[in-house]
Each structure stands twice: as structure tokens, then as C-alpha cells.
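Handover notes (outgoing to incoming on-call)

Open items:
1. Methylmalonyl-CoA epimerase: sequence verified, structure written out, both below. Nothing else pending on this one.
2. Nothing else urgent.
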Amino acid sequence: MEKIEHIGIAVKNLEASNILFEKLLGVPHYKIEEVASEGVRTSFFKSGPNKIELLEATKPDSPIAKYLEKKGEGIHHIAFAVEDIVLEIERLKGEGFVVLNEIPKKGADNKRVAFLHPKGTNGVLVELCQEIKES
Ligand code: ZN
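Methylmalonyl-CoA epimerase C-alpha cells:
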């Protein structure tokens, strides 16, 4: 794995949280993107070399809605950049980690993503993400 690509934060209201994080970080969000297949709307902030993703549920049965219901707002996942997501999934499976989606899916911000089950990672939902390069 490479650097931490971003930290994902579950929020109830994306508009209100965009205002809050703009005050906190001193920069506005640079994009809002909906991932309809995941029932989520995201916004992204850059703060120096760091990236924050805010996640709001768009439907009541989405994973983020369920997370908010159970745990409330807060840090939802940590995403690591990987060079080759397919190889990394194979490596992590070999190490005994449970991969939630073994076939990488299209995530926000031009990424192929996969998640590890938090039960196997001390309660931390880990996202792997590989930048989709234009060919
Ligand atoms: Zn993420």
C-alpha cells in the first residue's frame, strides 16, 4: 500500500458539513459527486497534502445511512492508495483479510475501490483505491 489517500467522514447533512469543513480547513470543497450505486453523495476537500471525503446518504437503505443510524457521525473509513488494486486484494486475501467486494468497483473521484471488512482490521473500515488513469 502507498500513502493514505483520504479519510472518509459520515455526515448527516452534506451542505451543513461543507460549510463546517470549509471553516475548519480554510478551503472550500473542490467537488461534489454522487455515487448512485452506493446511495451516497460525497464532497472532497484538500488540505495541504491531505484529502477529506464527506459522505451523506441519499437513500435510507444505503450503507452510510445504516452507519449513521448505528454509530452517528464521525470517521467512517481510511482509504489507502494502491498501485494495483487487483494484486493488493489478492495479497490481503492471502493474509486472511476479508474483502467486502473482491471485484473492484467504481468509487468517487475517479477511483477503483474495494473495502476490507472492519471485523478483521480492529474495527477500521479500510478502503483500497487505485486511480483510474486515462488510457
Ligand atoms: Zn473513500
